[in-house]
Write the structure tokens for this entry.
Amino acid sequence: MPSQSKPLAVFVVEKIGWRQGLRALSFLAAWGIASERVGHPVTMQEYTDFWGQSLATSYKERDAFALVWPDEVKTPGVVWDKVKRQVKERDSRAVAAAEVLAVKW
């Protein structure tokens, strides 16, 4: 992590821009919520089924995440573990994603 923390949203947007950045952070929050509810790190198929979306959409989200954290794309839990303490609302994907935007990185 950088020595001077900044909102995770700023970090991500500086790396890949707003559109992909929001998609990456949404994936992070959604993956974390799904994994916590299921009780283990979810696969892409489990993620897709949990959120009721197409596999193509899930992979677009995961690919955006990989642009920011290429080494953690197979195990998003490493990044989720760093931010989940600051995400209080885990009943809504949208609210959790918004809270991830404000996480200090």
